[in-house]
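URGENT: need a sanity check before tomorrow's submission.

F., can you look over the MFS transporter record below? I want to be sure the sequence and structure line up before it goes out.
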Amino acid sequence: MTGTKSKLSFWQIWNMSFGFLGIQFGFALQGGFMSRIFQTLGADKDAIPFLWIAAPLTGLLVQPIVGYLSDRTWHPKFGRRKPFFFVGAVLSTIALFFAPYSSALWMAAGALWILDASINISMEPFRALVADKLPDSQRSYGFVVQTLIIGIGTWIASNLPWLMTQLGASNTAAEGVVPDSVKYAFGIGAFVLFSSILYTILTTDEYPPENLEEFEKEKKEQKGLFSGFNEIVKNIAGMPSVMKKLGVVQFFSWFAFFTMWSFATPAITEHIFGATDPSSEAYNNAADRVGNYLGTYGLVSMFYALILAFVASKVKLNRRLLHMGSLIAGGVGFILIYFIQEPWMLHISFSLVGIAWASILSMPYAMLSSSVDPKRMGVYMGIFNMFIVIPQIVAALGGVNFLYKAIFGEAVINTMLLAGTLLILAGFSNLLITERSATHD
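C-alpha cells as predicted:
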C-alpha cells in the first residue's frame, strides 16, 4: 500500500495486537515467579538480581538486530514482521514450558536467558507493526490497545499458580523442587503464548514497502553482517532528540520495574507474611498471594488502557503530562508497600503501579513513533529498547543492592522504596520532552 494509511477498526487493531497476550503471559510468569524458582533452588536474596542478568544482556544485542532485520524483510506471503513473530513464538514456548523443571540454579538462569531473548524476537516487531499499519492519528490508540491486551495477559498469568492450587495441584514440593502449581502454570502459559501469536499471524496482513524497487535496491547495497552493524551504530549515533530524552524516562522506569520483578516475592513474603523458608507451605502460599497482587497491576493496567483507548479515539492526548502523572502514581504505589500492614491493602498499592505500567507500555512508543523515520521503524524500536535493558543490566550488576541498602537500609522491603523513588524520578523526567510532535497526537 502506498500513500496515506487508512484508519483501522478496533477489531483490526485488536487482531494485530493479540499476540501480545501470549508475550505477556511469558513476561508475567517470568517476572512474577522466576525469583520464586531461584529461591526454591537455593538462591540467596542478594544473588537474585545477578541471576536475571543474562536476559537484559541478550536483549541489548537481540533487539536492535531483530529490528534492523525486520526492516529489511519482505515476502509477499509471510510479510515483514510476521516471520519474526513465528520464530520468537516457537523458541519462547519451549523455554517457558521447561523453565520450572530446572534442577539447578544455572539451568533456571539459562532458561530465563533463552526465554527473554526469544520473547524479544517477537516483541519488538509487534511494536513496529503498530507504526507500520496505523496513521499517526491512531498511534496512541494502537499502543493503548496493545496495553489493554497486555493487562489481560498480566492479570491471568500472574494468578495461574494460585488458580492451579485451588484446582488441586500441589503448592509444595521437596526441597529444591518447584511445586506442580508453578509447573502447570508455565505449561498453560506456553500454550497461550504460541496460540495467540499464531492468531495474529493468521488474521493480520502487512503493507508492502511503499517503493518495492527502492527497497530491494537498498537491501542489496547493505548486505553483510558488517554493513548491518554499521547501520545500527549509525542510527544509534543519529538518534532523534526525542529518543534521547525518552531514554532518561525509560532508564528510571525500567530500573524500578526490574527491582519489583527481582524482589517483590522475597520482600512481600518476608515483610507482610513473615515467611522466609522457600520450601515451607507458608512461603509458597505467600508467594501465590504475591502473584495475586502482581495480577492486580495487570488488571488495573487493562482498565486504565481501556479508558485511554476510549479517550484517545475521541480527543487528542497530551502524552507527556499523561505519562508523567501515571509514573508518579506508580511510584507512590511502590512506596506505600513499605507502610502496609494488612495484606489486602497491597491491592491498592499495585493498582497505582498498574496505572504506571499501562502508560509505560503505550505512551513512550506513541511519542517515539511520531518522531522517527518510518523506513527505520523496526531498528529504532529495537534501539529504543536498549533503554529498557541497560537499566536492568545496571540493576542486576549490583545497582539495586547498593542503592537500596545505601539509601534506605538492609531490609529487603526497602527495595520497594527504591522502586517508588525511581518511578517518581521517571515521571518528572518527562518535563525534558518539549517537542510537540511527540507530546501531542
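My own read: The CA atoms of residues 331 and 420 lie 4 Å apart. The chain has one domain: 10-439. If you see anything odd, call me.
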